[in-house]
Design brief:
By secondary structure, this protein is mainly alpha-helical. It has one domain: Amino acid/polyamine transporter I, CATH 1.20.1740. The chain has 20 helices and no strands. The longest helix has 39 residues.
Length: 494
């Protein structure tokens, strides 16, 4: 592993970013902010066009004749049950983000729209729609297309489960394919490590604020952050030493059960009719607007709207692209034996439906409590991490729900680290589907170090910009992967 130039360069890049983030957080953040702003202004249209195209292609593949093709041999059967498959996929792909942004994001969009002179009632509707757009079909189309390509070539064509494998296979006769494939794998490892480190930092920030809310601590400081991080490291070591079906499946199933229980509790204890009305409306708004909004670039609006669009929608699309090699390869690994139609239906629809209900309940509850003056919406501007816990504090059994949220967030972080370490270990062994425990633990340590550097930066804004900084090339890489898939599928059915 350590004599592989590709991995040495990738580790060197990630460690360089980690050290820079510790020594000069402001400098790294400014560089990332300037670069991301430049990319969004020059290629924002291309990011949106790419994400929407991926969604349309996924939809077409699911209903086309290619949908019957199995990811593996024709008689292969799925390795995991449908429920475990969905929970592992969901926990790896989003997990802690839903807990972090459940109430905060809809409220943030609502406040912006109201400040832009949009009628408050319409602002609430649009705030939920925009949130669902960020976390729905477009996000999972990016993950799904990447995962589908890797699963198809890995299980049906027998290639290593690497991002570069489809490129090297389809364009084997081209002189440029080897060099481009090498660069793609390098960027994949770098994006996975940086993206996961950012997720770890955001998760630790939320767990820290949850503990502070539970014990009514006004100041937490670095000591609590490091304590949470230390427990996190101890928690993910054990799952890395056992089989994927035992460790990851158990953790993700437990986290999802807690999250679903929390969501149902809010639905039943809160204003059920109000929340369900909002969810039904959100479903209709989303279905009617998801494709048109995917082509919306807010070209003719002022700089304030342009900045909001870049900070949220474009940032999210690039964020999902940054995570696509990690989540895509992981989804591919657990999807052997499923048909293309079954794969795409599960990857796109199940997480999207869950997200609409999740944000409908948490966001709707935030609107309801804000309207009743039991929750100050402006809290998202001062400390976005605490929004969920302040919302829970307005409901009965707030201590219990706060503990449940902390535990779920913690488990989601662990599942993310475990799945990312597994994928990186696969890359380290040329695509081996069962890498050794030693290599997984090595990557677990590297990811822990990167996560620690992000935590020491103590800035959610810095974390988001740095993640986006690592994802720029994947706008082009996913298109190349899509071309590889379509060319190979066409050849297979001829």
């Amino acid at each position: 592993m350590f004599f592989n130039p590709l991995l040495l360069i990738a580790v060197g890049l990630t460690l360089a970013v980690a050290v820079w983030g510790i020594v000069d957080t402001a400098g790294l953040t400014q560089l990332a902010t300037d670069y991301v702003r430049l990319v969004f202004r020059s290629r924002g249209w291309f990011v949106m066009l790419t994400a929407t195209t991926l969604l349309l292609v996924c939809g077409w593949l699911a209903v086309s004749r290619y949908g019957r093709i199995r990811l593996g041999k024709d008689d292969d059967q799925p390795e995991f049950s449908t429920m475990s498959w969905l929970t592992m996929m969901f926990a790896a792909g989003m997990g802690v983000g839903l807990l972090f942004f459940g109430a905060a994001e809809p409220i943030t969009h609502y406040l912006f729209l109201v400040s832009a002179k949009v009628v408050p009632v319409q602002s609430a509707t649009w705030a939920l729609f925009i949130t669902n757009f960020h976390w729905g079909l477009h996000a999972w189309a990016i993950y799904g297309l990447t995962g589908l390509v890797i699963a198809y070539f890995g299980f049906r064509k027998g290639t290593p489960q690497l991002i570069s494998a489809p490129i090297k296979t389809v364009f084997a006769g081209e002189k440029w394919s080897a060099g481009v494939g090498w660069l793609v794998d390098l960027l994949s490892i770098y994006a996975i490590a940086i993206g996961l480190a950012g997720s770890v930092a955001m998760g630790v920030f939320q767990v820290q604020d949850g503990i502070a809310a539970l014990f009514n601590w006004e100041q937490t400081g670095l000591t609590l952050s490091l304590a949470v991080f230390g427990v996190l490291v101890l928690a993910y070591i054990v799952p890395l030493t056992v089989d994927l079906s035992k460790g990851m499946a158990l953790l993700s199933n437990t986290a999802i059960v807690i999250a679903v229980g929390l969501m149902l509790y809010l639905l039943l204890v809160g204003p059920t009719h109000f929340l369900m009305n909002g969810i039904v409306e959100a479903i209709g708004t989303y279905i009617s607007g998801v494709i048109p909004h995917g082509f919306n670039t807010f070209t003719f609006y002022d700089e304030q709207v342009e900045s909001w669009f870049g900070d949220w929608t474009l940032n999210y699309m690039v964020w999902w692209l940054a995570w696509s090699p990690f989540v895509g390869v992981f989804i591919a690994r657990i999807s052997k034996g499923r048909t293309i139609r079954e794969f795409l239906a599960g990857v796109l629809l199940a997480p999207t439906v869950f997200s609409i209900f999740w944000f409908g309940i948490f966001g709707g509850m935030g609107f309801f409590k804000g309207g009743a003056e039991k929750l100050d919406p402006s809290v998202v501007a001062s400390n976005i991490n605490q929004t969920t816990f302040l919302l829970l504090d307005t409901l009965p059994l707030s201590a219990l729900t706060t503990i449940a949220t902390i535990v779920a967030a913690f488990l989601f972080i662990v599942t993310s680290v475990v799945s990312a370490a597994y994928v990186l270990a696969m890359f380290s062994t040329g695509g081996d589907q069962n890498p050794s425990v030693k290599i997984k633990l090595i990557w677990g340590a590297i990811l822990g170090l990167l996560g620690l550097s992000m935590i020491l930066s103590d800035s959610v804004s810095a974390v988001r910009q740095i993640i986006a900084l690592s994802a720029g090339p994947f706008v082009f890489i996913v298109i190349l992967l899509m071309v590889c898939l379509l060319k190979s599928l066409k050849k297979e059915v001829e």
